[in-house]
From TrEMBL:
It catalyses: (2R)-3-phosphoglycerate + NAD(+) = 3-phosphooxypyruvate + NADH + H(+). Pfam families: PGDH_inter. Pathway: Amino-acid biosynthesis; L-serine biosynthesis; L-serine from 3-phospho-D-glycerate: step 1/3. Residues 50-167 form the D-3-phosphoglycerate dehydrogenase ASB domain. Its EC number is 1.1.1.95. This is phosphoglycerate dehydrogenase. SUPFAM superfamilies: ACT-like, Serine metabolism enzymes domain. GO terms for molecular function: phosphoglycerate dehydrogenase activity. It is an enzyme of class 1 (oxidoreductase). It comes from marine sediment metagenome.
């Protein structure tokens, strides 16, 4: 008794009706997974060129929600480069969806995200800039919370998402999905080895690592891509290393 029926939409042959049924099922699955439906009656049509930017916005919002501290007060989106030539409303909705999915009890998707954000009093602003230095496109999210702010910039290159900046730290990371550890720390000798020693002892493989620092021996950011997630006890063991200020587990 959990059946949804739909008309065949003028498909007059068995093959045509099979294709329509398959397409409807794929669209329903997309919505249930929090993705954008190309043919939703209560959402704007999304072109294939816009899909990578929508994914980038959702990923960036999700990352921000896992790194930030405190209750969200406002979200500012800045679009630069070729992305400004499109209708950016689906990108904004995807960013809101990714941001709220980790922080609210309601089931968030790309249809109800803006409504839930409005109900919660989230202030949302947008900015467009045609010129984009060093990149053909750039999407920047700035989230203000009651405890501070976080800014994350991403770009889409050949259909692939690249995280290029978190606050003042520059990088180039492809969030292909999986488990990550973000560590704020002091740039000092031996720290990378100390973390590697712990993950090795735990039989947790590091598939990639990125280090970014503001200046030698100053504040730095380390990002580890892991083959499996850390337990809370394991994360605390890494956090206890001298020189590490924060160690946040992230799943993208």
């Amino acid at each position: 008794d959990k059946i949804i029926v739909t008309p065949h939409l003028a498909a007059s042959t068995i093959e045509a009706q099979t294709n329509v049924a398959k397409d409807i099922a794929e669209q329903i699955l997309a919505v249930l997974q929090g993705k954008y439906s190309s043919y939703a009656v209560n959402a704007p049509h999304v072109s294939s060129e816009l899909i990578p930017f929508i994914k980038a916005a959702s990923t960036t919002g999700s990352l921000a929600s896992q790194l930030m501290e405190g209750q969200i007060k406002s979200l500012h989106l800045k679009y630069c480069g070729e992305v400004v030539n499109y209708d950016c409303s689906p990108i904004k909705t995807a960013a809101i969806s990714g941001l709220l999915r980790q922080t609210v009890e309601e089931r968030i998707n790309l249809v109800n995200a803006s409504l839930i954000a409005a109900q919660r009093g989230l202030k949302i602003s947008e900015e467009k800039e045609t010129n984009c230095t060093n990149y053909s496109n750039l999407l920047t999210l700035k989230i203000d919370t009651e405890k501070g702010a976080i800014t994350i910039s991403t770009t889409v290159r050949n259909g692939e998402i690249h995280i290029i900046q978190i606050n003042d730290f520059w990088m180039d990371i492809v969030p292909a999905g999986g488990c990550f550890l973000f560590c704020d720390h002091i740039d000092q000798a031996g720290l990378v080895g100390a973390i590697g020693s712990i993950t090795g002892k735990l039989d947790i493989n590091i598939s990639s690592m990125h280090l970014s620092r503001l200046q030698p021996r100053g504040q730095a950011l380390m990002i580890l891509a892991l083959d499996k997630a850390l337990t809370e006890e394991q994360r605390q063991e890494i956090l206890a290393i001298h020189g590490i200020h924060t160690a946040k587990a992230v799943k993208l």
